[in-house]
Records
---
Amino acid sequence: MREIVFDTETTGFSFKDGDRLVEIGCIELLNKVETGRSFHAYFHPERTMPAEAQRVHGLSDAFLSDKPLFHAGVDDLLEFIGDSPLVAHNATFDFGFLNGELVRCGRTAVDLARMVDTIVLARARHPGAKHSLDALCNRYGIDRSHRVVHGALLDAQLLAQVYVELTGGRQIGLTLVSETIEVQTSFQPDAAPAKVRPARTFSASDAELARHAAFIAKLTNPIWGMGEGGAGASG
């Protein structure tokens, strides 16, 4: 099952009140295992960055001045997320901005049925505990020492690890598959996926079987002959 864990950074708390999305980071999971594929982009918000928002994520007007508008990168974003479930922490916030931007540039909003909220999962699994991303990283021993400020891709990477823990732990990915799967390590639309070969089945050759039969013929009352007319057969 393919899932996308994502996070956003914005100019504030409400798209309806004029705030805009300025960064999005997405991590691909396949059967709860990170594939190494990701999507990350910054966008010019077409407005100034409030000081309080900049203190959270560190994205200034100067840094965002040469970044593309959302509609310029929307096709790549939609191609990456596809029709997969979308996992976010306090997901109604991130979906509000993502869908706000999509509708603003004439695209269809993402169906809320695809939304997976890790805060809801955390409250069900750890009632009464703290459910911030930092608190959950601490609970599960996930290193967040490099998280000096909020960043969409970094937070999505941390959240992906938290999500795996909330839904069963790291052992969830220890499955054996016989079919060939496709693996792509980075998001490059034109790149050919690498092929992973399934496990091989090895059989003895005719010559090996003949040598084995000759060896067995030299044994007295071999157990391999019981039940097939040998010394140990009943009847």
---
Amino acid sequence: MTRIGVRLRGWSSGMLNLPQDIVHDLPRITLIGDRELYIENHRGVLRFSPGRLTLALNRGLLEITGEDLSISSILGRELAVEGRISEIKFKESEET
């Protein structure tokens, strides 16, 4: 991104009070205990098993590990996971 683009994003998020996840295309992750996980702004499911879920993000991957994981809903770029969640790991892409 160009310097002007970075400055414009910084200015617009500050002046307009926009959330950082919207301005910078970041995922919004909501964890309820260790049983429910909601992820917004993902780019798709790459791998899924009852023990591991890998999601594509704009700038990397999100890995969720646990037991008895199940995807309870997928609506566009929103996803809900249920099960016993033990770890959430963000892996940044080497291209950024």
---
Amino acid sequence: MYKQKKNYIILLCLFSIQSTIAQISVSFQPLSNSFPLVVKGKAAAIYSDAADAEVVRIAAEAFRNDVKLVSGVAPGTINADAGSQQVLIGTLGSSRIIDALIESKKLKVDNLKGRWETFTISIVDNPAPNVKQALVIVGSDPRGTAFGVFELSRLIGVSPFYWWADVNPVKHNEIYFSKSSFTSPTPSVKYRGIFLNDEDWGLQPWAAKTFELETGDIGPKTYAKIFELLLRLKANLIWPAMHPSTKAFYSYPGNKKVAADYAIVVGSSHAEPMLRNNVGEWDKSMGAFNYITNKEKIYNYWDSRVKESKDNDAIYTLGMRGVHDSGMEGVKSVKEAVPLLEKIIEEQRGMLKKHVNANVAAIPQVFTVYKEVLEIYDSNIKLPDDVTVVWPDDNYGYIQRLNDEKENKRSGGSGVYYHASYWGRPHDYLWLSSTHPGLIREEMMKAYQTGSDRLWVLNVGDIKPLEYNIQQFMDMAYQAEPFKESSYSKTHLKNWVASVFGAAKAERISSILWNYYQLAFERRPEFMGWSQTEPTTQTKYSDYNHFYYGDEAQRRIDSYEKLVSDLKTLRPEISAKDADAFYQLVYYPVIGASLMNKKFLYRDKAFLYAKQSRASASDYAAMSKQAYNDIVKETEYYNNQLVNGKWKHIMSMEPRNLPVYKEPVLPEISLGKTGGWSIAPEGFVTKDSSLITKGNAQFVLPVFNRTSDKKYFIDIFLSEDKTLNWSARADGWISLSQRSGSLIPQAGKREIRIWVSVDWNKVPRNGRQNGKISFTADGKTLDVNVGANNSVPPQLANFKGFIEEDGFISINASDFSRNTNKKNQGWQLIDGFSTDKSLMALPLKGVNIPSLKVPGDLINSAPSVEYDFYSVTSGLPVINIFTLPTHPVNSNYSMRYAVSVDNGPVKIVDFKTAGRSEEWKQNVLRNSAIRKVEGQSINEGKHTLRIYMIDPGVIMDRIVIDFGGLKKGYSAIPETKKN
């Protein structure tokens, strides 16, 4: 240790160093002109001043453990060996060694003073007698110091989730840092953290029964691990767990202390004013939670907590709601609520002024406008200017409101409360990580770019398995700039995967995860039962079509099968050190989502195929049941075998015991007689199985068109348990994927799918050509009529656009013919969610809304995108437009766009939803708002669809023009061929 500060300062004056700002880098091979952290079995000693904040000591000790984790060598404490290297860690004004370096001008940190949570990392030569070099980490404040230390941990390969997801770093015998200096930027968002919520099925039972037996609950030992994770993520805020299953945060004195030790700011959720957990702390014996009839007890209840927490770093939630996520008691209307809330807030601030700081404006306070509170806020409540307004999403990832110009001028600023996990109507999603990274980026960057940068809180449920959602959210909150480009979502995911599993596997693993999120965006695994909650309904058959669009349901199953196949091919290549992390971060969520989808889609096939007298119906029923059993098996492994039982009780496959998680209810299967076998061409749907069993069905495929390269399927199936040899013959221009084969009474072999296409070189150029496919087996022949249109209208010779097929046209919004942006306003391409790209109406603020009174003005002033298409049908088309169910950017706007065909009448569309309407429920379940616009009557030929921008924040995903042939389906229909 340095014992004589005076001599130390004098000697420091003999030396000087010129620092430059550059990104410091790490090497695991000898590097010229570098700082050797570990070399030849010895590690540089680590020093932090005992007078510095406790979080600095904690970070220094964690870094010591990280170095040992990577190198096997544990750094010691400071010594005076000649030629030694040392790591000096300290906060401005709180570390005598750091202050001495600054005073001697050895270390320049002028750009740190007065900044929030900022740090420098630099290398100083000859900082003291007998010390050759020092790696110096200096923070502008204690958290800044800790962030700098954990930045070094990240650089040497220790993931923030090293403990929470068992991410083991690559081992290295030697570690070197480049001789450069780095100063971190100020965090983009001031307060950044997580809300532990709905912890009943994972975090709380795991803490109580596995990790923190001495407390039997989520207590200080668990919070210490959570707070370390937050610091490693460069986050600073906690909204503690608060369900009835968990005792209130302040019930355990150690919780308050560990928060102070780790310098974590303690707040509370939208339902918990003044750091009080009502569900655990408001006793019925205290009377009604009604400020009109029981003011004294409620006032004292809040006042005592403010007094108790006055020495903690805290953010106080102002206002009042019901005991638990319900409306305020004692008022019958918003009109009555406004003056009462104003009085409550005034008295709450009086408590803060009395106990915490006479300058109440210096105390962080928030007013979260969640659910009914938003209506109260919009009724011109007088909210003190220094209070931070926190905008919530709608619980499904779509932010309900953001700042207008007036709100941007408030000194308290604004923030966002965002969900990546949720319990409630229309349905929970508490099991897997299913919120698309692209959606998180789009909504949170919209918030950031419109001024909501004071506080971001992510509802993370049980923490696991939301590891990546947490990482992305905190990285964005810490440094938002890279996320301004939508393409960075994929880049960030790949970089994160590389940091965990290595660069060599990053592309493959990140591709699996991205596609996993794409499929979850189309329909979350938890929503696959088509059931709802509050009230709870039983599961239903899905909206996926099994008979059109090439079997829409099977296409989804195949997509999951591809992910699972890639996953299982990759798994044996994962090193032993990464196996546990791979299971938690990749394998379990992907496998779980795949199995949940198969459980329901195979059940649907069992039901539908039984109606067609398919013997394979029983196979699908068995596969549905097996999918459920496999979820049970994987979850058992997660809880009982993974990392030798470390995570026992953390993972529940049926949170809240909702119907969607239960064993599938399978249909009774009773097959009619069909002569042993039959067929079902694509598009053949009948509720009358006798059409098959009596041989009266007229089998026909949809018509093939030369302008398309489509193919259609025909299923051949057994209806009795027998062996069947079959053959098929077809006209010469008809191509079959298989012309003969055998069906046998074994699982998976009772049916076969034949794909039919057309060899256009063999079809006569004389318009419509009719042909036939004949299937023969066991003395019976069944025919399928096939039509092909080989004529191409002259108008299509040089046409560039979409062409009608099967009575409709499907267009991805990003695949426009022209984009006429005006004055930095218009439709901008962003990375898509269900399609590769989407279109977003920009900018997000400062938009002059075009006049809606005169459509001509709209046409002349509004940016538009245009889509050229060719119809072969005359009539009155219906234009289906699919947008993400976003909400207005602020109260100045709605969610409007306008539609016109061939410069005809302009129709203004608004998909803004009200409250928790049935439309909103369906929108968030399918992540899509659908509007049907009836166009004017058109003739066969070329046309142009124009969609005009009106309100910012509209995200257009796809368009389907229906000429009468569109069939019911759920997912994005593959694009109609575009010339």
---
Amino acid sequence: MRTEEREKPVRAVVFDMDGLLLDSERLAVESLGLSGQELGYELSEQFRHSLIGMPADTCRAMAVTAFGPDFPLEEFFRRHETVIARLVDDGRLTVKPGVTELLDELDHRGIPRAIATSSNRVRTRHHLGAVGLADRFDAIVTRQDVHHGKPHPEPYLTATAALRADPEFTLACEDSPNGLRAAHAAGLRCLLIPDLIPATPETTGLAHRVYPTLYDAIDYITTANTTENCRTATP
């Protein structure tokens, strides 16, 4: 924590999606288990959790390492997309606490915002549409829009470029270690709001702040931007 420092104003925000805006990671863990069972494989909860926050290509490599070259990779992930879409269509997907209020605050302040997600375009559009958030972002960067996924900084650099934002004055919000590493490498301040993966000494050290919910991000932005206004008004 660096509470003694004056905060730089927040002029843009880039969000992760799964586990940060959407309570989707639990559905993903459930879907991975169901998809494996349909194909005769038991995926341990530990293994399923290890896939959280990983790009799809990394998940595929991890599955082959865990189950061998005969693992029906493409069929497994095809079923996973089908199962998780069904869970979402059944009304199981919800937004995380503070999301709507934070987006309303950004609207009020005229602060542009983007998503940088490891999910593919189809899943991203489907999930955002299911919870009524599809039209609330100025840019959406998916795994298919970059050459390198998280923890590489490219997703965050691409998102800030789409917003025409300066990384120095752009805030990232993340829930996973890989996403945090990507935002940090891109030069963004990152608020870590852990979901299924708890904060560690490493992630706490990389994060600008660690908060329990996105409600705290509202307070952070209010304080940072109010501090800027006070400095501007000072003779």
